[in-house]
Amino acid sequence: xxxxxxxxxxxxxxxxxxxxxxxxxxxxxxxxxxxxxxxxxxxxxxxxxxxxxxxxxxxxxxxxxxxxxxxxxxxxxxxxxxxxxxxxxxxxxxxxxxxxxxxxxxxxxxxxxxxxxxxxxxxxxxxxxxxxxxxxxxxxx
Length: 141
Known about the structure:
The protein is of the alpha+beta class. Helices cover 17% and strands 33% of the residues.
């Protein structure tokens, strides 16, 4: 039986003012620079809800870019996944990012990145990561 891993989360940025598309354009270009899923990368364009350049009036205060994918036992290559995700974050504007990793064997892990300032700017490197782990189920002795 294959071990399925589910990875999902979101990247949050400050809401945009009308006519201010620089941040949105940079974030969109960073996500569009990812390879396609048929090339079998850890991160692909298809797993992201890529925002349009135009201002979306439905956003209240936060721009939310969500993503998700199903993998076969990605936890065994999790370091590489994290490296690629942080490489993507390094090219984007954001305030925080959250990744949930759900595994069949080792429970759920939540990884959170926060900018050390008001927001992260591309290339600034000011990222801080925190990880939490939870496991549901009965303890077998």
